Each structure stands twice: as C-alpha cells, then as structure tokens.
What we know:
Blueprint (H helix, E strand, L loop, with lengths): L17 H15 L4 H6 L9 E5 L11 H19 L3 E5 L1 E2 L3 H16 L3 H4 L1 H25 L10 E2 L3 H16 L3 E11 L4 E3 L4 E13 L9 E3 L10 E4 L13 E6 L2 E9 L11 E4 L5 H9 L26 H15 L2 E14 L7 E10 L13 H10 L4 E3 L3 H10 L4 E2 L1 E2 L9 E4 L2 E4 L10 E2 L3 E2 L1 H5 L2 H4 L9 H6 L2 E7 L3 H16 L4 E7 L2 E2 L16 H8 L1 H9 L8 E2 L2 H25 L13 H22 L3 H29 L3 H22 L4 H8 L23
Helix pairs in contact: 1-22, 3-17, 10-11, 10-15, 16-17, 17-18, 18-20, 18-21, 19-20, 19-21, 20-21, 21-22
The chain binds one RNA strand through strand 7, strand 8, strand 12, strand 13 and helix 11.
Amino acid sequence: MNNGQPDINPKLLSPYNPEETEGRIYKLWEESGFFNPDICIEKNVTDKDAEPFSIVLPPPNVTGTLHIGHASMLAIEDIMVRFARMQGKRTLWLPGTDHAAIATQSKVEKIIEKEEGKRKNDLGREEFLKRVNTFAQDSHDTIIDQAKKMGASLDWSREAFTLDDKRSLAVRTAFKKMYDDGLIYRGNRIVNWDPKGQTVISDDEIVYEERKAKLYTFKYSKDFPISISTTRPETKVGDVAVAVHPEDARYKEYVGKEYDEIFCGVPIHIKIIADAAVEKDFGTGALGVTPAHSQIDADIAYKHNLPTVQVINEYAKMIVGGENLLGKKTTEARDIIVEWLRTEGLLEKEEEITQNVSTAERTGGIIEPLPKLQWFINVNKPIKDRDNKTLKDLMLEPIRGKNINILPDRFEKVYYNWVENLRDWCISRQIWYGHRIPVWYKGNEIYCDVEEPKEADWEQDPDTLDTWFSSGLWTFSTLGWPDLESKDLQIYHPTTVLETGYDIIFFWVARMILMSQYLLDEIPFKTVYLHGLVRDAQGRKMSKSLGNIIDPLDVAKKYGADAVRMSLVMGTGPGNDSKMSEDKIKSYKNYANKLWNITRFVLSNTNEIKYNDNFQEYTKKDKELLTERDEIFKTITKEMEEYKFYLAGDKIYQYTWARFADIIIEESKPILNGENDEDKSSRAQFLLDTLIKINIILHPFMPFVTEEIWSLLPVENKNLLMVTPWPINDTTN
RNA sequence: GCGCGGUUAGCUCAGUUGGUAGAGCGUCCCCUUGACGUGGGGAAGGUCACAGGUUCGAAUCCUGUAUCGCGCACCA
C-alpha cells in the first residue's frame, strides 16, 4: 500500500463533478461515431454479421421542450441500446421528431394571436406555415440538445422528421396504395367536430370530462303523445323521429304515426319508430332522434331511412329558426328553448345529472357531432390480395399469434378490446400544418397519386392528414421505405423493441401495426415495452397548476444526468406509473460519488500491481468472492435481457455499495496492509477486476460517470466504455 | 355497465417457480478511524387491506369483500 501520496489521477482527489464531466464525455462519444452502427462495424467494435438490434425513438412533438416523461423514455431506451451495443449487437437507435399537426398548429396560433393579435387567416396559408416551420425548427433544436444532455446514444446521422421529404413520400405512397385498394374513402358521415380547433378529430382524440348538466323532460307540443328527455334541447329543432323500444307497451300504439309540429318556431316532422337500441328504463323510455348531431341517432336514422336535418354549424351556432334562434350559440339557444318550453307549459321535469362531455384532446373544445364530408380508412373491408382479411384482422393477428410481445402482457386485452370495437378512422383534418391529402379535384373528377397531376386546373384537397397517419409509418419510413432496396430497411426492420407510454397504445402502437402489416406484410417490432407516467413524490400528475413539475434539465444540471436517469428507471416496471422526487435523484447522485470514491480507494491501493484480466492465482476466499460476484452479474444480465431494468439496476447498486464497498473493501484493508504477498496480490486483482466490471455493467444506467472512471482505469488497449464488450456472455444455468 | 391494476415499515416501492418479510428515503443512538460525512456501524418500525379456501406451509395460488386509481362503453 502506498502511504502518503498515491500515484493516481488528481481528478479523483475531489468529489465527482457531473457538470464538468457530462458535456465533455458526450462530445467524446459523438466524435467517436459509435452511435452509428456502420462506424462500429468499420472500426471493428461490432461484427458485420452480428445480430441487429434496433429501436426507433418515439418522436417527441415539436411543440416545445422535453419533459420528465421524455427523459424517462430516453433513459429506458438508452439502457436497452447501450446494453445491446456492448453485447456486440449491430445496434441502431434512430432519432426523430414529430410535426404533431394539430398540437403544433394550435400552439403557434396562440403565440401569433398573443404577440401580434392576428389569426392564421390574416396571414394566409403560406405565411402561416412559414411561421409554424420556424417554430418547429427552434423547438426541434431545443429537443435535440436536451436529448444529448440526457446521454442518449442516438444515431444523429439518421435523424428523421415526420414531415420531411422522405417521410412525405412515404405518406403519399401509403395513401395512394390504400386509396387504390379502396381502404381509404371519402364519405359524408357524422364526425367529431371541434369548433375551437375548427377541425374534425378522430374518436381517439376525444377526452371525456365529467360535468354537471341538466336533463330536461318535455313534449314537442301539447298534443304530442310522448315525452322525451334531453340535455341538449337546442338540437331538438333537428329531430326527425321519436324512437321507442319495440316491446314498450306504453308507446306501442303510436309506432308508425307521424306528426307535424312547430317547435320553438321551427317546423319539424316527427315519425314514431320502434328500435331495440332504446332503453325502456332510461328517462321516459323515448328518444328524440337527431340524426345530424348524434352518432347513435344517425345510426338509428340510417336504419329507418330517416332524413338528416342539420341545425348547428361549424361555429356551434344555430342555422335554423327565426330571429329568436338563428345565429345564436348553442348554449344561448338552449336557454331560449328551455324558456320557450317553460312558457308553453311543455316542460315536465328538470333534473341535475352528471354526464361525460366529449372534448377535444388538444384544444379542450366541446365536440359538436356534425355531418361532414371527410376521408376515412375502412377497417372492416376485406382486402382481396390479403386473403380477404380486414385491417382489423391485420392488427389482431400478430398479437394473437404472439409475434409481437407486449410488456406487460395485460395490455394485450386492452388492445384486443380497442381493435374489436374500432370504427372507421377519420384521417382528414381541416388544418394547414401537416401532410396535405394527395388528392386533386377537377369538377366531379378525383385524382389520387403520389405526385400531383401534370395537367392544369386540378385543385388539391385543402385538408391535411391526422398526424398519426405519418406516425404509423414511423418504424419503416425512417429506415428508407418506400425504397424496398434500402439496406437499413432490410437490416433493421422489423425493429427489435418499441418503447413508449401505455397512454398511446391506441393512437400509435395500433396504427404502426396496422400500417406495417398492410404495407410491408411484416410486424413493425417484436416487443412493445410500455412505460407509465412519471408522477410527483405524492403520486400526482405533474402539472403547471400544481407547480410540481420537475424539469429534467434543471435536475440534471444540479445532480447529474446519470442520477436523473437512474432515478427514472429505479422502482418502476413496464406498465406502472413511477414516482419522482428530488430526494430520489439526490440519492443516486450520492451513488455516483460513492463509485467515484471506491475508484479512488481501489486505484490508490492497487497501483503497485499490474492489472491482469486473466489472473489465475486467486486465494480460496477470493475465488468465493468471484463466484458470488459473477453469479450476481449473471442474474443482472439475465434481468436486462428480460427488460427488468429496475431489478438489474437495484442489484448492481446493492452489490457496489452494500457488498463491495461496505464489506469487501473494509475486509480488504488489513489484507492490503498485511505481509502476505499472495493474499495481497490476489485481493488487489479482485478489487480492480470487480471495479472494472461494475463500471461496465453500470454503464447503460449511468453512462457518464462510468465512462469517466473508465478513462482512469488501468486497462490495456481500451476503447471507449460504450463499446466495451459486456463481461457476461452466458446466462444459462 | 364491462375490463384492468394497486393495497407490504412513517413515505416510495421490491419481493422471479408457494418455504421464517427486503431496499431506499425518513426517525433514533453511536463513530470527526487514512476511499468516501454525498460517509460508516447499530436500532426501532410490518396480523403483507379484509374474510374464507387450497396446502405440511400463502405476501405469493383460488373465491369473495372493501378501498383507491385507470381504460372502454353508456351518457336520450
């Protein structure tokens, strides 16, 4: 043992300083080129015939900055990727960002309105899109910078954007093929109209909010035989029928009769019909049918061949009635009609109920069901050259057949349930930012192709596509599709893992399976790892109003990105929400420092010996320690392969601190200070070997501090730690 | 209404195929010993939500209940 001045790097004499270290280390990694699997092969750290491992990054929306959820996603995926890379796999982690159509457009609209008092129509489509693109670019740059700060080993040379040229080509190609197969059609149907965002949205973009409402029970007129109930009296001027249950004795005699009434000044024609969809016990057991403003009513109307009378427009204003109603907002019209019912003595009952109100996910606007001409994807149509399977079938097959493994598997049920109840997907949006629908019109003619028609006078559909349409292509549009010759596509697709939040299993996971199955006849990924929400220490959602938001960059600056990563991974498994607190992060900062101090001790006490990675003369005691250690490392490796990172991380943490530092190092002190040279060199070799291996194994979790320590370790011919081979190859028992 | 998940130490959570309950943080006591006070040693603290059942043996498997949370559907 060296008394006095140990001959070690002076850096080790002061505590570990993540802020000084992390930027420098990331630069080293980037300059090495090892994020790119081609360079790994070129530089001989990866075998060219190695098994591929690929993940495409769920592209963050270019709507602002990274939040703690993104940081958690980056941490988990980076662990997977670094582990695979160190195992020698041909590893690709492909980055990108999402234009997030509605979300980005409405954000920019808000900014422009606030700063300039202008609306998008004041600027015009072209100028407005310019503004959105500038915003998206800024936002993109911030996000990329943040991802780098978290240590993400993404191959930046392959970066993609859902709205760039290559992805646009993929989108148009996909659209065209679906159009030609008759899977995409244009139809006039009841859609979810968002009056606030002035666009249609899909069923999945609806968020239900529980609110108090009044249920009014009344008759259209004094002579009308049946009372009905509604929470939306203003829509009743659009009623065309009253539906009752076929078995309902109360109303049987009226079925088939027709009535003409004047309802609040509006003439209506009501037919009494019988339909089993009506519940006898709800309200009066009779349902006023409003085909234009209710999906269910539209279904009933279709069955009974009833007309559709639209009474509300895109601005949620009345388009029928006299001065009393015409042009009024729906909420005003409601009061007017209720007042009219009251004075006419038609109102029989008013009761408070709670109901789920449909709101638009992005804008919060209350959804107004309206009949509109839109583009849809038919999920129930048999596809001829696919054995007459439907898109639904194609979505279900790989999960049923276990070709795609969902973690945790309980989400399989949720997935089935969703797919089985899926209705046609409305893909057109009345917004400017996004992929414009590749369809052109000339009079009654319609033209759909990947490129615009050569002849003049064709006018392109003004609408754009749902952002999830392009996201659905993500696993292969990023790898070169529609170019089937693309090397990346051949090597890396299907991707190995999709790691994403369970909250977008329908939006995204299902759509990717749909698109990949249909367009490539191939699954998009083999395993889906679903992470949960990151909540605060008390388990609450993080939100601005609660003031409990933890900014990943703030805490990374304070405690180091390693500590933040570790705290995001520990104590959390797939499918479960996790909790986050500064205390938790702090404890992993301490861990990084502990490792640093262990390194100082080991290096300063072993610098007299030469590290030999094939040392054979271990003492009996040290052989036992080796066996114990390797058993733990083996378990850790196995757990990593099973995606149980929380268990693996905890084991390496426990081993380093509670076993290696607290017990083994303490017991080593007398040995290293003793007189027995064989014991001394054996123990010194063990300490060095173990320190080295702890660093390797911990690297996927805490890449910065381990890479920094690695640079100080006496390993011969070493490369960067990020491409150093994993020490355990065989996990079979 | 249908489905899913949670309920384990003060707090946050582990607990792999059933075999005497674990960690971190917090609390209390001790240690300014040469890697580290961002540390070390020790202690207190649990009818594993409840009730049945299966079993030699249940936190773990089965049934039911309570409770919290989530998803879907309904929402006239």
